[in-house]
Each structure stands twice: as C-alpha cells, then as structure tokens.
Amino acid sequence: MTDNSAYRIEPRVPAIDDYMRLRRESGLTPFSREAAEKGLPNSIFGVSLMLGDETVGMGRIIGDGGCFFQVTDIAILPDHQGRGLAKLIMTALSDFIATLPKTAYVSLIADVPANRLYAQFGFDETAPRSVGMARKVV
C-alpha cells in the first residue's frame, strides 16, 4: 500500500495557473486562460490536492446550486498518479455531495478505466437508458 500521508486535500478551487497546468500535464483538454478565469469562480465546490506548497491534483463540482451538479476536472500530475490519490479527491467531493438536496442530480463523464473509481462512490452508468453527449464550441 502506498503511503499518501504527505498529501493533503484543501477545500478550494485551484488557482488559474495551477488549473491550466494540471489540465495540460495530466492529459486533459486544455482551456484558454479567458475560459478558466470566467469558469473557475463559478465553481460550486473544489478541492486542491497538495504536496507541500505544490498543487498536484484537483477536482471540482459545477452546476446550478440546487438541481443539477457535475463532477469535473479530476486531474493528478503524472508523477503522482497510481497512488490512490484520486480516491482522496473523490472522497472530498463525495462528502460535499452528501450535503446537497436529496433530489439533486449529480453526473459526470467518465473516461475508461476511471469509471471503476467513480462506481466506488455510488455513480452508475446510465446507458442504455441515456448516453452522455457533448458539443465542442469551435
């Protein structure tokens, strides 16, 4: 078992530069600074995974604050992956989800094999009843 005691979760959305770096270096699609500056302050909840003073991971919940929420931006720098740290992030997000209205709908888009992690936190695949769809602004 990996010792993760040096890592800590801070209940805050990462700073813009950390957010952009984490998305880029972890392999997520990067966003423009303009988009990040507009989007991050509108987060419902966020966590930063810290190692000392360095932000090495993150996760956010976005949504309308009452009915609909989405887990997004789960990212960990490659040098820190494979240590069970995504579970730390998801535990913090899940604890927040437990405080939401009981009728809230919480969704996420899972890349395989991360869907196995999310299932551990109560997320079920919705197919074939519904499927995730996306539209990219170009």
Automatic annotation (TrEMBL):
Keyword Isomerase belongs to the record: no
Keyword Methyltransferase in record: no
- One Pfam family matching this protein: Acetyltransf_10
| Matches recorded under InterPro entries | Acetyltransferase_Butenolide, Acyl_CoA_acyltransferase, GNAT_dom
Q: Which Gene3D superfamilies match?
A: 3.40.630.30
Source domain of life is Bacteria
Ranges of residues in domain N-acetyltransferase: 5-138
Alphabetized SUPFAM superfamilies for the sequence: Acyl-CoA N-acyltransferases (Nat)
Keyword list (alphabetical) reads: Plasmid
State the protein's name: GNAT family N-acetyltransferase
Task: Recite the lineage of the species.
Answer: Bacteria, Pseudomonadati, Pseudomonadota, Alphaproteobacteria, Hyphomicrobiales
